[in-house]
Hints:
The radius of gyration is 21 Å and the shape is globular. The protein contains 14 helices and 15 strands. About 35% of the residues lie in helices and about 15% in strands. Strands 5-1-6-15-7 form a five-stranded mixed beta sheet. The chain has a five-stranded mixed beta sheet with strand order 11-10-12-9-13, sandwiched between helices. α6 (about 125-140) crosses α12 (about 300-315). It has about 350 residues and is of the alpha/beta class.
Amino acid sequence: MQGRRLRARLRGWGGVGAMAVVCAVALVFALLLPLAEPRDGSVGTGGSGLARVTQAKAEDGCPTPAMREAPEKQTLSPSGADGSTIEAIKNRTGEKRKLIVGVDQNSYRWGYRDPNSGGTGDLEGFDIDLVHRIAKDILGDENDVQFKAIPTDQRIPAIRDGRVDMVVRTMTINCARLADVAFSAPYFETGQQVLAPKSSPITGYDESLAKKKICTATGSTANTKLTDDQQEHKLVSSADLRTTVPNQLDCLVRLQLGEVDAVVTDGALAASQAAQDPTVELKGDPFTVEYYGVAMKKDADDLVRRVNQILVDYRQDKTNGWQASYDRWLSATLGKDSSTSEPPPPQYLRKG
């Protein structure tokens, strides 16, 4: 149902792969020696062990099939109560008494600095509106926020290292990330899509990507999806996936310079980028269904519950809530009547 809705509203992404046949000697060693995942998170090379290690890593945050089927449901039920995490934020003094949030500053209509804003350079966009709403609820003033612009590949490290209280940066909820951080209920639904020049023969996520250079952001779901699909032979083997960048917007720059043939990213972001550059367009339908969530530390249960309560109120606020923000920032690129114009319904599996 959701897949059909998504295909109807946007337009153009990608699983864990199988490897070559293992020789008899290698099979003996595989049986004798335990399979260990490297400490650096890489999966090594060769043998069917690659598929097993990658699969185990991807499912770390979702130990059951039901959780793997719907990682966006792996969140705590809403609550407006304060806990130790929120109290620590409130007890900050002076100029430090702010909510510290990791955001993007280069994603048009999501989190960006408008060059036509009169020189203020203030961050604005759909994600930024949500941050202001969270700050107002927790600290009483929507401007009690310290924004920290972080690249795509630093979203999880920034949370784990305590550099930010949360990340609100078009961040997809998935099992691999749930092993490292906690997520709120979803606040937006999207899917991976292909972005390429209008003049390109590329038609979507299909055989037309053969021998094409494709850019993705390091640590993004797009990068993982394409790599896994190529290993599983769901993506043509000649597609060149070597171009990765720290920030997703850098892919658009590479595309504009002619250094790559296509970009794969969330369709919601791709639509905004196409709005910035009239020479590019979305190619084909979305090929995944994904959800954005607010990411926080795994042990910050009170903050997760509070953000989920804020999202409940934000969805219901018809004047200054989710719908008003969508109409202001996203309806021009995603449509006023498509199913993206409504927030995804929250579901909570973790009650404790």
